[in-house]
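An instance as discussed:

___
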Amino acid sequence: MQRALELADRAAALDEVPVGALVVRGGEVLGEGWNQVISAADPTAHAEVVALRAAASRVGNYRLPGATLFVTLEPCAMCAGAMVHARIAHLVFAAAEPKAGVACSRCQLLDEPWLNHRVSWQGGVMAQASSDRLQAFFKARR
């Protein structure tokens, strides 16, 4: 999670919401990402999606079985859907996202029985460090 927080700092340096993510499998980092929706003019360039794209490109397959995605903020529905399609095994996130988080805050999307793949998840890992970054970012913008 420490590396994800460093990636969140890269997003903040670009004046993007400070969220960072990485995909790890077998102790190897397969892909990293940080929010780039503004700088890339891409509404799908959330940290998780950028990390998943990098990982899939690296291994030459859109499926990433056995991989864990670490992210500094609870994922939204788009990112959760991408994790399911990529067959991510486990999600670890730092801060909960009460407005749009779908692992546990707004709903439990990853636990829905109609999904064709289950992503196990754990939240709250280094949550305060992530929350501090997010609060400082939004305070500075007001």
In short: The helical segments are 2-13, 47-59, 77-86, 127-141. The first helix runs from residue 2 to 13. The chain has a mean pLDDT of 97.
